[in-house]
Amino acid sequence: MAKAAAWHASFTSHSSPSPPFSRNPMVPAVFSLSFSPTTHTFSSAFPSLSIKPKRPNNSFQVRSVAAPAEDVAGFDEMVSGTERKYYMLGGKGGVGKTSCAASLAVKFANNGHHTLVVSTDPAHSLSDSFAQDLTGGMLVPVEGPDFPLFALEINPEKAREEFRDATKKSGGTGVKEFMDGMGLGMLAEQLGELKLGELLDTPPPGLDEAIAISKVMQFLESPQYNMFTRIVFDTAPTGHTLRLLSLPDFLDASIGKILKLRQKIASATSAIKSVFGQEETQQNAADKLEKLRERMLKVRDLFRDADSTEFVIVTIPTVMAVSESSRLSASLKKENVPVKRLIVNQILPPSASDCKFCAVRRKDQMRALDVIRSDPELLSLKLIQSPLVDMEIRGVPALKFMGDIVWK
Ligand SMILES: Nc1ncnc2c1ncn2[C@@H]1O[C@H](COP(=O)(O)OP(=O)(O)OP(=O)(O)O)[C@@H](O)[C@H]1O
């Protein structure tokens, strides 16, 4: 049985006209906060929650958190060292991946790391989570943390278009048409077999993510971004992530085939191509494709490097979500992706026993936690329990509040 997590919180908001936390209508009240319009200070109906303003601008401070040993995430280990580390957070849809990823990024930044938080979920919610506009596919500074924190929402469709352009010119449909025109039908058929054009027209789930992650690598390769020591990925829901893990290999093979085939046909067509003045364009495209291939290989290696990368599974305390997390953990292990931690988010606190509905729900959640503790795929993972709070986790102060509870 998990012990109670008790916390004392203080929050002030001078910049936002409305409270940054709104009550989630889908969940029963666990503890209540009242809002004073004159001071913009939340105060709790619970005597154990002491509210006091700390900083003039948005601030949410957790003063003390008593937590059971298994709740400790091992943040000291996560934060130590100046070498670059990657954390990928993933799990079922809606369990709190973005909130956990964003809160981890804020905590890293507040602990002195240049941090980048990246969303590779085609349905981005980083902007919503930080309550700041972080769109645009470029690195955007996040306002609020003590140390530089940047966010990047990769536009998957745009990234795929760039990829498509490169492959089209160098071996996809473009070359196929060109070869057809040259009367080299057989080679054209071989190119057709690669089905790359088709692949990009109806991309399998996960492809966008693979390309998005390779795009991140492109950013990180450039010298102006080598100051980042912590990179946190908010990944797409489980299914996509699982398929994504095998994609770099698949794409590497496809790109490799195209490049080989291109080499083969290069001599046969170079004379004709030079007549049409296409030699240079083709070479540039081939170079671009080769770069993409190298990046894919890096992504594949990155997923499996236990020294620099960790996949953190996020789940909620329901048997269905736990079963899915178990499958995710098994697949990650099969792919040799390092997994050490499991966050169980949205746990009702013991005080929920005041309400009959909540008490029954909490009992059910405790059963799900027991399932985790006896699941062969999950029992070896560090179990991090995160309470369901009576407010939406939105904005840096709220993310700091959550981070201080989860990442200890
Ligand atoms: N511990 C918590 N207590 C209360 N609300 C929470 C908690 N964790 C997450 N939420 C809320 O649940 C909602 C979904 O969270 P979030 O966007 O982080 O989930 P997600 O797994 O990233 O979702 P998606 O799969 O749709 O991207 C948000 O409104 C968030 O504020």
From TrEMBL:
Protein's UniProt keywords contain Hydrolase: yes
Family the entry assigns: Belongs to the arsA ATPase family.
Organism, as annotated: Hibiscus trionum (Flower of an hour)
CDD domains tied to this protein: ArsA (cd02035)
Reactions this protein catalyses: ATP + H2O = ADP + phosphate + H(+)
GO MF annotation list: ATP binding; ATP hydrolysis activity
SUPFAM superfamilies: P-loop containing nucleoside triphosphate hydrolases
InterPro entries associated with the record: ArsA/GET3_ATPase-like, ATPase_ArsA/GET3, P-loop_NTPase
A cellular component annotation (GO) from this entry: GET complex
Annotated segments matching region Disordered: 1-21
Database matches in NCBIfam families: GET3_arsA_TRC40
Domain ArsA/GET3 Anion-transporting ATPase-like residue range list: 85-405
Keywords in alphabetical order: ATP-binding, Hydrolase, Nucleotide-binding, Transit peptide
One Pfam family named in its UniProt record: ArsA_ATPase
Protein name per Swiss-Prot or TrEMBL: Guided Entry of Tail-anchored proteins 3b
Top-level taxonomic group: Eukaryota
GO BP field: tail-anchored membrane protein insertion into ER membrane
Cited PANTHER family: ARSENICAL PUMP-DRIVING ATPASE ARSENITE-TRANSLOCATING ATPASE, ATPASE GET3B
